[in-house]
Amino acid sequence: MAFPSGLVELIETLSQHGVEQAVICPGSRNAPIMLAISRNTAIQSFSISDERSAGFFALGLALRNKKPVILCCTSGSAALNMAPAIAEAYFQEVPLIVLTADRPQEWIGQWDGQTIFQERIFGTHAKQYFSYSTHAHESLDEIWHRNRIANDAFWSAFSAPQGPVQVNIPIQEPFYPEKGAALPVAHPVRKIQKWISPKLLDISIKTFIKRQLSSSNKVLITVGQMPMNSKIQALLEELMQKGIPVLADSIANLSGIAFDSHDLILANPKTWESLQPDLHIHLGKSFVTKRIKQFLRSNAEKQEWQVNPHPQALVADPFKGLQHLLEIDEVAFLKELTLLNFSEKQQAYFQAWEKEDEIIDSKRSKDINDWNELGIFQKISQALPQSNSEIHVANSLSVRYLNWTKFVPKGIEVFANRGTSGIDGCLSTAIGAAQGNPNLVISIIGDVAFHYDKNALWNSYVSNNVRIIVMNNQGGGIFRNLEGAKDLPELENFMETRQVFNAENTAKDAGVTYISVKNENELLHALNSFFQESDRAQLMEIESNSNINAAALAQYMALFKG
Q: How many CB atoms lie within 10 A of CB 442?
């Protein structure tokens, strides 16, 4: 049957969120949307021919019933005629979900009938804009993306301040079902539920948490990037003692509290089945590496929650299974968990993670004596100050080494530009953070990221509490470790950013003490005094060979692959 994919699921998801009314403007291109709406028995449909009037009619419905209303039109100037009502809805904070049918992208600007520029047609008068794919040959990622858009559209319209959102839907011909044919049966849709509460949790959320956790025997907490917070640290440490495994990245600032070897544990796919949770709870933002995401994405059966008191406008679903977004204070949530008792099966689940973590620790605790970046990071870690310091780590390989080498001492806060994960500005961020800071500010950065941002030292604000460690392997060494990239003939010339510069002249121009390190003895000697107080900032440049680094890392990772 010729019917655009995903439309039945879009309307079903909105219906499950409680959308009960739709205003449909007659047309041809939007006929498939109209059918998906009108044949959904949970939605009351109204047919209004004039789009300008239809927009205000929908506004009146939403004002009366305090719920989002669907507003649907065909392609072309039809959507422009809704603009006055959309603007009114924006400033009056009325939730409308505007579904605008569109021509396929390739026909925009090609003199095709009823074809205009519909993307973001309402401008800033729409809270959010989404483009919704209806391709018939969808991938699993595309199905997940469409479901996420449906959930996002509802919550964007419904969350305070309420307002209109646009979902633009390009539709290819043919788009009518065959004569007498039923619409496709909706695939199971995933409704993302939001729970919103102030710091004191209301009774409904407390009841929900207690009920769900009492029926779960494999609860897992993961923590992505997060500022250091002593209250959160203490509560997560208590939950670990009660049998809840907590996995954390180095940038989660839970060193010495949570299991931080997840990337190495999960390098062995044989561990995956026994370690899968039945309830996964995530705090913080992103993880550095892919493996933890791949592991959790592979389990479609689990429940998945995200605790995020201040989510961005678009719902983040990095593990592709989010069911409950809890917009509540993390401390209040964790306190609620500490009041619960957990089963013996939960204790066994914790012990499974604990055993794997101990195995990893025993393997990576051995000294690495060859001159390569793994051994260099290990020795720097052993020399780090235990207090009154903070680490600013650059992107690419540097931040990954922190996870792989158990680098960070307990109590030392780690910062990283993982919002976009670029190499630009990593050193400038550290220099800025050092201003008026009583701590020693340690920047760990690769040579490419350093040279890209060496203008960070082109000012008069490089304070004497700055310590810069430049890992110089003459290029972007990470690419020698990436499957697919490492075997390309273009690797050296076009991917690695090969370079022969060093940092000496830059350091001297900036009035920064420069230290060159080319072997283990020089490193150990330099580390004896590098982190001590001094009257100038210091830069230590450590040279190593990219090929040797890649081989050492591959050999190291092989220890954990089982």
A: 24
What span, in angstroms and rounded, lies between the C-alpha atoms of 230 and 236? 10
Q: What tokens does 308 get? A: 């995020």
Residue 130: phi and psi, rounded to 5, are: -135, 145
Strand order from edge to edge, sheet including 413-415? 413-415, 389-393, 440-446, 466-472, 538-543, 513-517
Each residue of 485-522: b (16+ CB within 10 Å) or e? eeeeeebeeebbbeeeebbeebbeebebbbbbbeeeee
Locate tokens 């210091």: which residue? 538
Residue 227, amino acid: P
Per-residue CA distances from 308 to 132, 267, 283, 311 (Å): 26, 28, 7, 6
Contacts of 47 (CB under 8 A, 6+ apart): 24, 25, 26
Confidence of residue 1 (pLDDT cuts 50, 70, 90): very low
d(CA 524, CA 378): 11
What three-state secondary structure class fits 445?
strand
Domains of the chain: 7-170 (3.40.50.970), 193-364 (3.40.50.1220), 373-558 (3.40.50.970)
| Cross-sheet strand order for the sheet of 279-283 | 193-196, 324-327, 303-307, 279-283, 219-223, 246-248
Full 3-state SS string of 74-110:
CCHHHCHHHHHHHHHHHHHCCCEEEEEEECCHHHCCC
283 and 223 Cβ atoms separated by less than 8 Å: yes
301 neighbors 278 (Cβ within 8 angstroms): yes
Sign of dihedral through CA atoms 10, 14, 20, 23?
negative
Neighbours of 229 (CB within 10 A): 14
What confidence tens digit (pLDDT) does each residue in 481-530 have?
556 656 666 556 555 566 788 999 999 999 999 999 999 999 999 999 99
Q: Are 148 and 315 in contact (CB under 8 A)?
A: yes
| 477 — pLDDT class (breaks 50, 70, 90) | low
Q: What is the pLDDT of residues 6-31, one digit of tens each?
A: 999 999 999 999 999 999 999 989 99
